[in-house]
Amino acid sequence: MKSSRPVSPSKSAAGHSVDPAPAGKRFLLLACVAILAVCAAYANHFHNSFHFDDAHAIVTNVYIRSLHNIPLFLTDGRAFSSLPTNQTWRPLVSISLAVDYRLGHGLEDTVWFHISTFFWFLVQLALMYVLFSRVLDAAAPGPANRYVSLFAVTCYGLHPANAETVNYIIQRADLYSTLGVVAGMVLYISQPRLRKFGLYLVPVALATLAKSPAVVFGGILLVYIFLFEEEADWRRAWAAVLRSAPALAVCAMLAVLNIKMTPKNYVPTEIPSWMYWITQPYVIWRYFRSFFLPLWLSADSDLSALNSFSDPRAWLGAVFVVALLIVAFWTIKRREYRPISFGIFWFLGALAPTSLFVLSEVENDHRMFFPFVGLVLSVTWAAYLLVSRAIAARPEKRRSVLTAVQVLTAGVLVACAIGTWKRNEVWHTEASLWRDVTIKSPQNGRGLMNYGLTLMAQGDAQGALQYFQQATKFTPNYYILEINLGVVESLLNHNPEAETHFRRAIFLQSRDAQPYYFYGRWLNSQQRIPEAIVEEKFALERNPAYMDARYLLMQAYLEQGQWQPLAALAEDTLKIAPGDAQAQSYLQRSQNVQGELAAAERLAQAQPTAENFVNLSLMYYQQGRFQDCIATAQKALQLKPDYAEAYNNIAAAYQSMHQWDQAIAAAKHALRINPNFQLAKNNLAWSQSQKSLAK
Question: How many domains does one find in the chain?
Answer without folding.
Answer: 2
